[in-house]
Specification:
Layout (H helix, E strand, L loop, with lengths): L16 H5 L6 H22 L9 E3 L2 E3 L9 H7 L20 H16 L9 H8 L2 H7 L5 H19 L5 E3 L12 E4 L5 E3 L5 E2 L1 H16 L1
Antiparallel strand pairs: 1-2, 3-4, 4-5, 5-6
Helix pairs in contact: 2-5, 2-7, 4-5, 4-7
């Protein structure tokens, strides 16, 4: 029997029969993680919007701040992430573009690819939060999970989220779950904000909350028997 691994570079899970039956190339936990990232982005964008102002540094002289260098109009890392992006690809023959791609610059190519392949209408706004919420919808997300480029999309969004979180210093909370793992019986289950699946830190198995609730009921029934 041939085992097909999830196309995400950071994932080593094998696709199950349910996933391969619908031609997914990403496992369900990775699809859910993409959706969680996209739903988190509007919250991160709000924080970035409030972080535009560059922190004042320099020495005090007569009650005023003396800058060692001319102050910039805002934080470069934040401005890069919140910057605009074109719907079509922009050529850069001289290599003038550098630094972190804007959030919109990462999301627009995926939105454009899906809308062109499926002939769907794109979002009416190219604002990064609107692009993220459009991609997070069940239909675009399910379609993307079955395309040969789904692994590239996962990897690119993972890199974007690292850049965003490193800038805002705002990360989803991780909480221990007081229940043994249904597979390996270890007490290392962890749930993360915005994510559907709870992960075991020992065997790396993933469970929905409904699956954990069912496992708990089965365990209680076995104890009462």
């Amino acid at each position: 029997m041939t085992t097909t691994l999830c196309a995400a570079a950071a994932c080593s899970r094998a696709l199950n029969d349910t996933e391969t039956a619908v031609a997914q190339v990403l496992c369900n936990p990775c699809v859910d993680r993409i959706g969680a990232w996209l739903r988190e982005l509007p919250l991160q964008i709000t924080v970035l919007g409030g972080s535009r102002q560059r922190e004042t540094t320099g020495s005090q002289s007569g009650g005023r701040v003396v800058h060692r260098t001319a102050p910039l109009p805002g934080r470069v890392d934040v401005l890069n992430l919140l910057g605009p992006a074109a719907w079509r690809e922009v050529s850069d023959p001289d290599g003038d573009q550098h630094g972190q791609l804007p959030i919109a610059g990462v999301l627009i190519p995926w939105v454009r690819l899906i809308t062109e392949e499926r002939r769907w209408n794109p979002p009416t706004s190219l604002a990064p939060d609107d692009l993220a919420l459009w991609l997070a919808q069940p239909k675009p997300l399910a379609w993307a999970s079955r395309r040969p480029w789904a692994g590239d999309m996962f990897d690119e969004l993972a890199e974007l989220m690292r850049a965003v979180r490193d800038t805002t210093r705002l990360r989803p909370r991780r909480r221990a779950v007081a229940q043994p793992c249904p597979r390996c019986d270890s007490l290392t289950l962890v749930e993360t904000d915005h994510e559907l699946y709870t992960e075991c830190g020992t065997c790396r198995s993933m469970y929905t909350r409904e699956e954990l609730a069912l496992a708990a009921r089965i365990t209680l029934a076995a104890l009462d028997a």
